[in-house]
Predict the 3D structure of the following.
Amino acid sequence: MTPALAATIALVVILAGYTLFCLVSPFGMCPRCHGTGRRRRLLGERPCTWCSSTGSRMRPGARLVAAGIRMHRAARTAQERREVPR
Ligand SMILES: [Zn+2]
């Protein structure tokens, strides 16, 4: 096995694992407020604007997976519309 083939296989396995992880757990802890929903400021605390005070954010990979699912559904719907005789 050449090093390039091994690297390609490793990359595909890692990407497949991340995709499955994003399907199982699409939301992760907010990196700004560490899941608290509040951010410390000089004068007290404020609601976190990154996560709208929820403490969780959608993973970047989950956004890609959701976009792919949406595109697939739109294509299937368009294909079904074409196949129905009028
Ligand atoms: Zn946050």
About this structure: Strands lie at 27-29, 38-41, 44-47, 56-58. The pocket of zinc ion is lined by residues 30, 32-33, 37, 48, 50-51, 55 (CB under 6 Å). The chain has two helices and four strands. The radius of gyration is 20 Å.
